[in-house]
Fold:
Amino acid sequence: MAEIYAVASGKGGVGKSTVTAGLSKELSALGKRVLAVDCDIGLRSLDLLLHCDGQVVFDWGDCVCGRCAAQRAVISGDVDFIAAPRSFEPAFTPDSLGAVLDEISAGYDYIFLDAPAGIGTGFRIAAGCADKMLAVTTADNICVRSCAAACSEAERLGIKDCRLIINMFEIRPAVKKKLLNLDECIDETQTQLIGVVPFDRVLAFASVTGLEPDEFGPSVQAFHRIAERITGKKVEIICE
Ligand SMILES: Nc1ncnc2c1ncn2[C@@H]1O[C@H](COP(=O)(O)OP(=O)(O)O)[C@@H](O)[C@H]1O
Ligand SMILES: [Mg+2]
Structure:
């Protein structure tokens, strides 16, 4: 049975979808069967990051509303993918998405639910279907405070295992000293750190240039280490 992770943050633009794509690819490279589900209703982007935007015919909303079977909405690849609905319908609830996932989860080791920003309906749908959460933040007060709110809300919804990912971390000393340090991010969110992903220029421009960071790129290395930790391997947390 799959472990189901919501990837959430509070604020938008901190890298939830990038983290979802990066970790999904690395877990797949480790031989795991991975399904990534875009839960950002109306603002989907994970199809672009997984390079299957041209293949989307059905989304999970079609499954919830009985327009197609769960399996038909899955786009197969190294990482399997289900797109987010284009608009919200009242039938979209944690139970209805959960029922779709129940039909297909046996085929996977990990399912990642890429949540929308905020702690509203879309977040509650993703969190309500998940056993665990990865809370993504950048190292600044505004995003960390929002991330702390998302972690609290996840706990209230019954998610007991929530881990923090600090994304776009700056190692250049002149920039680093203007940001929160790792301990401050951990203290404010009261959430255990699972990894730090550095700011990666190639990643920042990837959707425009079409260039992906190679396997030795700093972000890919970080995603690889987090993926290993998710599988239970003891890997030192480093920020480089
Ligand atoms: N580690 C990183 N280094 C550089 N740019 C990043 C990094 N993570 C994400 N980005 C960029 O930040 C932008 C927002 O990322 P995205 O994953 O869409 O955020 P969210 O899903 O939280 O709204 C994208 O342009 C993405 O390429
Ligand atoms: Mg996103």
Observations:
- The chain has a mean pLDDT of 95.
- Residues 61 and 85 are 5 Å apart (CA to CA).
- The chain has eleven helices and seven strands.
